[in-house]
Amino acid sequence: MEEIIYRNGYQEYRQELRTELEKTSEGFVRIGYLLKVARDTDILKGSGYKDYLEFAQGEYGLDKSQVSRFVRINDRFSEGGSSDRLLEQYKGFGYAKLSIMLTMPEVITEELTPDLTKSEISEIKEQIDEEKAISDIEHFTKNAAEILNPPAESLVAQTIREIGCDYLNIYVSIFNDYECIAAPGHIRIKNIMMPSAPTIYKTRVKGRGNVILVLKDDEASITEVRTEEKTIVTWDEIVDAWTKVIKETGDPYETAQESWSRTYGEPFPEYEQEETPENTINTQSEEDSEEEAEEEPKAEPKEESKQKPKQRQQASKGKVAPVQPKKVNTPREKPAPIEEISAESSSLDPNVLRGYKAGLSNDIHTVERLLNENQYKAIKTKLESMLTTVNRIIESQEVKDE
Hints:
By secondary structure, this protein is mainly α. The chain contains 16 helices and four strands.
C-alpha cells in the first residue's frame, strides 16, 4: 500500500472534506429528484421497465426501501420539496444523518448542525420517539396534577432545574464558580454551559414531557417534544433560573454536593467528571464516519455481478443526554488522588462520603484557578472550607471507631 501524502494544513483539509460532504448531500437530493422524474413523467416510456422501482432495481440495484428513502429525502430537504437542490441549512449532514432526521419534527431539525455526530442525532430522535410513544391519555394520567394545576415556575426555570438535577458536572461547576452568574454578559456561565455554539441539552419536565434546550451565543430555545412548541428564551432568563436553583444559605462552608442534595432532596450520586483536550472539536467519530459511509446505498451497474453488501457494524450508543459540547476550555491537570477512605470506616452515608470526596476534588480545581488569578483571600476562604470538609470526614471516622 502506498503511503498517503497530504501537503495542506488541518484547516484546508477540514474544509476540503466538508466541501466533499456537501457535494455528497447534494447528490442524495439529486438522486431523489431523478427518481421522482422517473416516477412522475413518461421518461421510462419504451425503456422496457414497467415503473421507476423496477428501473432503479434493474439498472442500479436499488431496492424499494432505498428508493423510498432517496425520494423522501428530496421531499423533505430539497428547495421547494421537488427540486434537485439541497436546502442551505442541511448542507454537510450526509445521507445517514438526513435519513435519521426524516421523521424528526422540523422545529427540532432546524436547530441541528452538521457538526453533530450520527450517534448524537440518533439520541435526540430516540427522545422524540420515546415521547411520541406515550399516548395523550397516558400522559394526562401520569401528570394530571401538573396539567390541571401548572406550577408557577416558567418553562425555562423548570428546564434549568431539571438540567441541574440531571447533569451534575454543570451544577457543580456553576456552584463552585457562583460569581459567574453576575459576570458581565454572562460570559462565564456561557463558558460552562456552552463551550461552543450551539450546545444541546435534553431533559424531562414533569407535566410537559421531554424538552430540548438549544443554547446559542445570543439566545436560546426550548422545544417541547410532545407539542412541538418552541419557546425563545434569553440568557438573562437562564441566569435568573440558575440563581433560583442554587439558593445561597449563608453557609460559606456548604459544598456543591451538599447544595445539590438540599435542592433535590436526595443524596448526591456518584458521577465521573469529563476532561476533554483543549479546543477539541467533537465532530464525527471514526466509528460514525465508517457507519455513514457504509450505509450510503451503492448503485450496482446492470452488467456487473451482484455482491453481498458489506456487513455493517451496529452503532455504539453513548449517553442519552446531553449532547456533548463541541469545545471545552483548557483542562486543569487532575489533582493528586485524595487518600482512599472506605465507607466501612466512616459513620457517614456512603453517598454523602462520595459527595465530600468529589467536592474536595472540585475545590482543588477551584484553588488552582484562584491561584492563577492571584485571588489569595478567596483561596484562604476555599481552603478553610476544604479543611472543614476534611474535619467532618475525620470526625465521622472517630465516631465510627468509638
